[in-house]
Design goal:
Helices cover about 70% and strands about 0% of the residues. The protein contains 9 helices and no strands. α1 packs antiparallel against α2 and α2 packs antiparallel against α3.
């Protein structure tokens, strides 16, 4: 009973917040409603037993992506009135893309529910007496280890590219030059003074 109540609670809040994301005129409010969507989706994943996906959803999407969207929207001066003027011209394209996505989801649900091969996978997963996180870790770091490492390298390259593209060199800012500091001769840095005994140095 409690499980069903929590499911309907998370679902209703998720649908309502998703509707507000689309209908909100203020982009900052839309991003905040998007964060509410992520939290409720994470609650649904926990009810399904996928706690790893739920925590990843909260840590990555709420902690990084949504906050990044919020800062970008607050920093950029975008005229949303001009963007909404051409909205009616793209309604047909948007409806077509939505129809394709709904069709793909229906095919996936139909294949998962009625395909005999999928039923074998569900029974095999049901027989596993291990946690969701441990099962994903074993699968990720055994069968898909190289793909995981390649994806990490791609993210590293993209991060370095973003830093290089946004790095600006200003002449009025003094920056540390490590190579010049390391290659500087000792004679320019240290001065050896011979002091006689009993006398100081002024």
């Amino acid at each position: 009973m409690i499980h069903s109540l929590l499911f309907y609670l998370f679902s209703l809040v998720l649908i309502g917040s998703a509707t507000l994301v689309v209908s909100a005129r203020n982009p900052v409010h839309a991003v905040l409603f998007l964060i509410v969507c992520f939290f409720n989706a994470a609650g649904l994943f926990i009810l399904l037993g996928a706690e790893f996906v739920a925590f990843i959803l909260m840590i990555v999407y709420v902690g990084a992506v949504a906050v990044l969207f919020l800062f970008v929207v607050m920093m950029l001066d975008i005229n949303f009135g001009e963007l909404r003027r051409g909205l009616r011209r793209h309604v047909a394209v948007g409806v077509g893309i939505a129809a394709v996505l709904v069709f793909e989801l229906a095919v996936i649900v139909y294949a998962w529910a009625f395909s005999p091969e999928m039923m074998k996978y569900t029974t095999a997963l049901g027989d596993m007496k291990t946690e969701n996180t441990r099962a994903l870790g074993r699968l990720l770091y055994t069968n898909y280890f190289y793909a995981f490492q390649v994806s990490g390298l791609i993210l590293l390259v993209s991060m370095i590219g973003a830093i290089v593209l946004t790095l600006r060199k200003r002449k009025d800012v003094r920056r540390q030059k490590v190579s010049q500091q390391v290659n500087r001769p000792v004679s320019e840095v240290v001065e050896v003074v011979k002091v006689e005994s009993g006398k100081g140095v002024l």
